[in-house]
Amino acid sequence: MGNRRMVFLLLLFSLFCSFGNAEIRVVSLSPSVTHAISLMGGKENLVGCTAYCSKEDRRNVPIVSTLLKASIEKIVSLKPNIVFSSPLCSKKDIRLLQSMGIKVVEIPTPKSFAEIGSQFREIASYIGREKEADKILSSYTHRIDTLKKIVEKHQGEKKKVLFQVSIEPIYVALPETYLGEMLSSSGGENIASSNCYAVVGREFIVAKNPDAIFISADSIMGKREINEWNKFSSMKAVREENLFLIDPNLCCIYTLDNYFFTLKQMVELLYRNK
After folding, report:
1. Residues 251 and 177 in one domain
2. 196 and 262 share a domain?
3. DSSP assignment, residue 50?
4. pLDDT confidence tier of residue 19, bands split at 50, 70 and 90
5. Backbone phi, then psi, for 87, in 5-degree steps?
6. Residue 15 within any structural domain of the chain
């Protein structure tokens, strides 16, 4: 009888916890946060997101914001317990939400895989998904370490590389950024040094003569940009056909899985003939 009572109490506690998590209502004003919540299995808590979240992540979730401007009325009507914001969100909107008693947590743009992991756990702590988050973080940390071991085998083949984040203007990833760390982890030497500007001209890049250029763009814009670069036939990245397109939905949404799959793609492309 005692064992049955214990099992009953455990089931009741589990059911209570499930209801407790489900009652946590979250609005995400950041595509990266929305994806992180989906990744850790917390989509049931998501009651609002942005129009720029991925199609899968925003499926059946009310849209309450563009990337820069939120609809305060829509957010308030959804009665969230917490709103996750990004550095791009209007400070005025954030103050207004806070004045209504709504908890707002800003998730900064991460600069490393370690920061992504820390933010992932922080987000999980608000929706009761710490165990799931720890398991996922451990898995991707192991997978990243495996990639780094592959890169170590090619230490003598360090290549000068560049990550082109946008096309007009040409915005490049600096070493102290999320994508800059990824370039380093892939075994590349970033030609955009810490003391240069993030926005550069083509002449700067041609003068640096990179071995490879990663371009964040969709297939249509990306092909046009590759055609532009192909005009500079003296550049090594052009001669060796090392102009690589990276899906912006993968490399510019800062989550554990996207970091891994972007880095994996970069490593495979850099050492594809090895």
Report:
1. yes
2. yes
3. E
4. very low
5. -60, -20
6. no
Residue 259 lies in a domain: yes
Strand partners, 245: 215
Question: What is the per-residue pLDDT across 114-144, written as a single tens digit (0 to 9) for each?
Answer: 999 999 999 999 999 999 999 999 999 999 9
Looking at the structure, tell me whether residues 27 and 127 fall in a common domain.
yes
Nearest-Å Rg of the Cα atoms of the chain is 22
Report the pLDDT value the prediction gives residue 64, as an integer from 0 to 100.
96
pLDDT tens for 236-263 read 999 999 999 999 999 999 999 999 999 9
Which pLDDT score is estimated for 22? 53
Q: At a CB cut-off of 8 Å and minimum separation 6, what does 120 contact? A: 36, 40, 133, 136, 137, 255, 256
Beta-bridge mates of residue 190: 161
Q: Is 222 a domain residue?
A: yes
- Residue with token string 């007009």: 168
Q: Which residues lie closer than 8 Å to 54 by C-beta, 6 or more apart?
A: 31, 34, 35, 249, 253
Q: Is residue 128 located within the same domain as residue 159?
A: no
pLDDT reading at 182 higher than 90: yes
Give phi and psi for 188, each to the nearest 5: -90, 160
Whether 20 shows a pLDDT value over 60: the answer reads no
CATH of the domain at 72: 3.40.50.1980
Q: Which domain holds residue 99?
A: 20-133
What tokens does 10 get? 């455990």
The answer as to whether 74 is a domain residue is yes
